[in-house]
């Protein structure tokens, strides 16, 4: 049941405030502003390395978590796609933990990587949406996420719920390792509790994004750039667009643009700049200006202040609510999802069943 939406993808995008709130409630005690983890989780105090493995969109959730585990838990962390990790000679550590992220819990490469990590003595945990899946069954520890069934082939609400789970795990890991103070935890939890409302706020830009998408639909290529925690969101935006609109899209770390891809910039190439107001804002804006100096069409995604400060000469801008800078990816995912969705509907593609793709990839 699409509940009045044209596609499951639209329904699932709009469900995010609710399912994100559910996922938060699985971890957060709002009265004490602390994160609780299920019993029997990794001994974070002893963990010497965390290896995070996933495919596709779930891999991008893992990439965001790298910034969180490093900053809050000072935990050495390695992240790779399952189809690569499996075939590398990973020097597994003695007290290593391996975390697998999957919506379906049936992705063949992720499952095979899990078995490999187990054979190498790692403790196995998963952030998985489908509770009765193979990956859930084979893991020692299940970190909950509460996205509910995801029908649209392109993952949306599962991604933001994965981000919420991972943020909570990283916060708790920081507390346990003594690298995050109670005060810092409380600030983060307070910001986390505001996320559902901010995601609802971000969804209100739908009409504006639909208008912008009419132009994007004419493009033959599009770039997405971001720095820090916004870099994986650039990758996710590009993946979502190519999956359902079939337009060639690439995501780059903003600082990498000038090391090659900038050669492709001209007046026909839109570039989506994910630029929340954080420590990287000025640098990202200067990358955006380099693009504009070469006649690239910059589409700035930032908060009100960010757009007021740097959005003046851009081709277009999408206002996105300001949040805690480290948690911005959860909110900034919404505009890139909507942009992909409306670009696809403008082109008239089969949004929920894009060509060549399956909801769960059970072949290696
Ligand atoms: C993208 C998408 C895929 C999946 C990937 C992993 O929109 O849906 O990239 O994220 O196939 O799937 P799961 O999370 O089920 O392991």
Helix-strand blueprint:
Blueprint lengths: L7 H7 L1 H12 E2 L4 E2 L13 E6 L1 H18 L3 E5 H4 L10 E7 L5 H12 L3 E6 L5 H5 L2 E3 L13 H21 L4 H22 L2 H11 L4 E6 L4 H15 L2 E6 L16 E5 L6 H13 L3 E6 L1 H7 L5 E4 L8 H20 L17
Parallel strand pairs: 3-4, 3-5, 5-6, 6-7, 8-9, 8-10, 10-11, 11-12
Antiparallel strand pairs: 1-2
Helix pairs in contact: 2-7, 2-8, 3-7, 3-10, 7-8, 7-13, 8-13, 9-13, 10-13
Fructose -6-phosphate binds next to helix 3 and helix 10.
Explain how this protein is built:
This protein is an alpha/beta fold and 364 residues long. The protein is built from 13 helices and twelve strands. It has a five-stranded parallel sheet, with helices on both faces. Strands 9-8-10-11-12 form a five-stranded parallel sheet, sandwiched between helices. A two-stranded antiparallel sheet has the order 1-2. Strand 1 (28-29) and strand 2 (34-35) form a beta hairpin. Helix 2 (16-27) packs antiparallel against helix 8 (182-203) and helix 10 packs parallel to helix 13 (328-347). The chain is globular. Fructose -6-phosphate binds next to helix 3 and helix 10.
Strand content: 15-25%
Secondary-structure element pattern, one letter each: HHEEEHEHEHEHEHHHEHEEHEHEH
Structural class from helices and strands?
alpha/beta
Q: Into which percent range does the helicity of residues fall?
A: 40-55%
Question: Are any ligands bound, and if so which?
Answer: fructose -6-phosphate
Number of helices: 13
- Given the C-alpha coordinates, what overall shape results? globular
Largest sheet: 5 strands, parallel
Mind telling me the C-alpha Rg? 20 Å
Poorly predicted ranges (pLDDT <50, ≥5 residues)?
none
For the largest sheet, list the strands in their spatial order.
4-3-5-6-7
Distance, first to last CA = 32 Å
How much is the average pLDDT? 97
Number of strands: 12
Subunit structure: Homodimer.
Subcellular location: Cytoplasm
Protein name: Glutamine--fructose-6-phosphate aminotransferase [isomerizing]
Function: Catalyzes the first step in hexosamine metabolism, converting fructose-6P into glucosamine-6P using glutamine as a nitrogen source.
């Amino acid at each position: 049941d699409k509940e009045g939406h044209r596609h499951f993808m639209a329904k699932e995008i709009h469900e995010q405030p609710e399912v994100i709130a559910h996922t938060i409630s699985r971890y957060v005690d709002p009265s004490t502003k602390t994160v609780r983890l299920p019993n029997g989780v990794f001994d974070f105090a002893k963990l010497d390395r965390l290896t995070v493995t996933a495919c596709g969109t779930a891999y991008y959730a893992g990439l965001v978590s790298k910034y969180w585990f490093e900053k809050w838990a000072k935990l050495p962390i390695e992240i790779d796609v399952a189809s690569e990790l499996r075939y590398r000679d990973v020097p597994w550590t003695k007290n290593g933990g391996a975390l697998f992220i999957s919506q379906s819990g049936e992705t063949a490469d992720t499952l095979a990587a899990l078995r490999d990590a187990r054979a190498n003595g790692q403790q196995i945990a998963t952030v998985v949406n489908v509770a009765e899946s193979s990956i859930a069954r084979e893991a020692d520890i299940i970190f909950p996420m509460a996205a509910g069934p995801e029908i649209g082939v392109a993952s949306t609400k599962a991604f933001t719920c994965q981000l919420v789970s991972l943020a909570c795990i990283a916060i708790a890991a920081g507390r346990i390792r003594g690298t995050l103070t109670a005060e810092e935890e409380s600030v983060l939890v307070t910001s986390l509790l505001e996320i559902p409302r901010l995601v609802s706020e971000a969804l209100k830009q739908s009409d504006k994004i639909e208008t912008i998408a009419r132009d994007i639909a004419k493009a033959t290529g599009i770039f997405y750039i971001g720095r820090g925690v916004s870099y994986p969101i650039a990758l996710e935006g590009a993946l979502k667009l190519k999956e359902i609109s079939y337009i060639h899209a690439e995501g780059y770390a903003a600082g990498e643009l000038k090391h090659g891809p900038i050669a492709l910039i001209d007046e026909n190439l839109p570039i989506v700049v994910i630029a929340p107001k954080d420590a990287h804002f000025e640098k990202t804006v200067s990358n955006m200006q380099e693009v504009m100096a070469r006649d690239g069409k910059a589409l700035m995604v930032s908060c009100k202040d960010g757009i007021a400060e740097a959005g003046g000469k851009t081709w277009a801008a999408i206002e996105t609510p300001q949040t805690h800078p480290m948690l911005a990816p959860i909110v900034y995912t919404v505009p890139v999802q909507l942009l992909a969705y409306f670009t696809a509907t403008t082109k008239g593609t089969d949004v929920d069943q894009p060509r060549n793709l399956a909801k769960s990839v059970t072949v290696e």
